[in-house]
Amino acid sequence: MVRPRLNRRVSGKYNVVFFKPSGVPMHELESVSLTFDELEAVRLTDLEELYQIDAATKMNVSRQTLGNIVKAAHKKIAKALVRGMAIKIEGGTVEYMNKIYYCANCKSSFDESDSNCPLCNEKGKEMPEKSKNT
């Protein structure tokens, strides 16, 4: 029997849920589905450059699970880029964090349950609402 999938923590909701090649009408494109937790894993490991163990802690998953999520996401993104497909961001077993704080010292983000940055222990600043989804 397969274990039920636990919620993966995601920092805020993303406003953009579709990416497509420029100049090609949507009805002519195939698409690849990327889940919100896959996008979050890529954001944490590639954009914020966190170690996998730190990103896994933020998402409430094991390091091995995070590695599997990132690998699946990279494969989908590569497929879309190489084959000229659209990327639709949808679904996943996620739990959205309420307030997100930003650390000016190490450039990481974390939720309200932490009073200081979990990576460098500096006091965080609340991220503006419009910046949470970028």
Oligomeric description of these chains: single chain
* Helix-strand string: EEEHHHEEEEE
Shape: globular
Low-confidence stretches: 128-134
Q: Tell me the fraction of residues in β-strands, as a range.
A: 15-25%
Strand order of the largest sheet: 2-4-3
- Please state the average pLDDT score: 81
Percent helix, as a range, is 25-40%
Molecular structure report:
The chain has helices spanning 36-47, 52-59, 63-83, and strands at residues 8-10, 18-19, 31-34, 86-89, 94-96, 100-102, 109-111, 125-126. By secondary structure, it is an alpha/beta fold. It has a domain at 8-97. The strands form three sheets. A three-stranded mixed beta sheet has the order 2-4-3. The chain has a three-stranded antiparallel beta sheet with strand order 7-6-8, with no helix packed on it. The chain has a two-stranded parallel ribbon with strand order 1-5. Helix 1 packs antiparallel against helix 2 (52-59), helix 1 (36-47) packs across helix 3 (63-83) and helix 2 (52-59) packs across helix 3 (63-83). 22% of the residues are buried.
Which helices and strands, and how do they pair?
Layout: E1 8-10, E2 18-19, E3 31-34, H1 36-47, H2 52-59, H3 63-83, E4 86-89, E5 94-96, E6 100-102, E7 109-111, E8 125-126
Helix pairs in contact: 1-2, 1-3, 2-3
